[in-house]
Amino acid sequence: PLMEAILDAGVPYISGPQWLAEQVLRGRWVLAVAGTHGKTTTASMLAWILEHAGRDPGFLIGGAPGNFSRSARLGGGETFVIEADEYDTAFFDKRSKFVHYRPRTALLNNLEFDHADIFPDLAAIETQFHHLVRTVPRSGRIVVNATQASLDRVLARGLWSACDRFGADDGWNVADVAELPECSEFSVVRAGQILGRCRLPMAGAHSRLNAVAAIAAAAHAGVDPAQAIDSLARFAGVRRRLETRGTVAGVVVIDDFAHHPTAIATTVDGLRARLTPGQRVLAVLEPRSNTMKLGAMKAQLPGSLAAADKVFCYTGGVGWDVSAALAPLGAKLRVESELDALVAAIVAESRSGDRVLVMSNGGFGGIHQKLLDALARRAGASA
Q1: pLDDT band at 213, cuts 50/70/90?
Q2: Largest separation between any pair of C-alpha atoms in the chain
Q3: pTM for this one?
Q4: What does the alpha-carbon distance between residue 144 and residue 160 come to, in Å, rounded to a whole number?
Q5: Residues in contact with 242: Cβ distance below 8 Å, sequence separation at least 6, in sequence order
Q6: Which superfamily does 243-382 belong to?
Q7: What fold is seen in the domain 9-232?
């Protein structure tokens, strides 16, 4: 009703991204972090690197960065880090939000099909990324994931700025990895030259690539890579990214925002890399995103969850046959349509040393606390 009244009255209106570009980003050195996965974590890393370097950056991040008390601030410095989303701008502007931001540094982390509710296919999303690339000035820089054929196609359509590649031997990369229980240690390499040894308090190959991408983007803004590497040892992560919510009787309940098959797989793999023999991953999934509810990626889910020891899936609000889609997982799969029944099944299966990995892009009906409470009741009853 409000929008109809505005249209009837002929009152001027503007989209949020356009307002942001005109009122906040104009005149700033914008560092935009785009990609299907890793935007929040990589943008948080980049903001922290700039903060640690004394640049007092502004930022707008679609999550809760652990090194800051808020998700957005204006900042007093020249730089502004923004999580650049490919979702459409508004009902009257179907371009991706990020085309409004005019970055001087554009970090393209990865690109897969997502948002099936607005994009018909991957090619349509590649077109939007091409539009983003066109907005980067000649004096700017594209920092691009070299492992993504989709991004190769985007840049093949036109590139008018300098380009740094990460994840490739001829660009920025990771070497000599040691996955430790509390962190990842690795060398940061550029064109074969070791720039330093990074100690990152996060697990998984995807986290290491995110870090290298942030270091490369910060270098374009003038931060010495050695200083950026040093800052990441104090990176506090992001809420809902392998975030421990509690431990009861040796069972650890972990929360993660993963909701795309690739993110699910990298999250499970990253967690498993930190476990010792005998410890299990109990994956708990809520297919809640619009793309998941449409079933556009259901065929990819069994492979994404294959590394988990047990898989529990909640079917509330899902319009496709979850049991059939996940049948390749066999006996390790449990499907429930009621949340309390799901909690009971997880608690009955869990034992000391297990990691219960809850993955959803929503609140999942408060399942984390429900699990912790049920585990506590079980522990009390057996005491």
Answers
A1: very high
A2: 69
A3: 0.81
A4: 14
A5: 202, 203, 254, 256, 267, 270, 271, 357
A6: Mur ligase, C-terminal domain (3.90.190.20)
A7: UDP-N-acetylmuramoyl-L-alanine:D-glutamate ligase (3.40.1190)
SS3 category, 192:
coil
Do 382 and 307 touch, CB atoms closer than 8 A?
A: no
Q: Which amino acid is at 4?
A: E
DSSP labels, 13-39 = ---HHHHHIIIIITTSEEEEEESSS-H
Give the start-to-end residue ranges of the domains of the chain: 9-232, 243-382
Is 347:374 a contact under the CB 8 Å cutoff?
Answer: yes
Integer Cα distance of 197 and 212 in angstroms: 11
- Note the residue count of the chain: 383
Two tokens, residue 257: 């925002």
Helix (H, G, I), strand (E, B) or coil at 274: coil
**Amino acid at site 153:** R
| Helix/strand/coil for 201 | coil
**Bridge partners, residue 175, by sequence:** 187
Question: Exposed, middle or buried, 98 (CB in 10 Å: 0-12/13-18/19+)?
Answer: buried
Q: Which residue has the tokens 């972990």?
A: 254
Query: The tokens of 51 are what?
Result: 């903060």
Q: How far is CA 23 from CA 15, 75, 94, 104, 302, in A?
A: 12, 14, 21, 17, 45
Check the CA dihedral 124-318-304-245 and report its sign: positive
- Evaluate whether 144 touches 166 at the Cβ level (below 8 Å): yes
Decide if pLDDT at 383 tops 70: no
Please compute, for residue 325, the number of CA atoms within 13 A of its CA located in the half-sphere on the CB side: 22
**Rounded percentage of the chain residues whose pLDDT exceeds 70:** 99
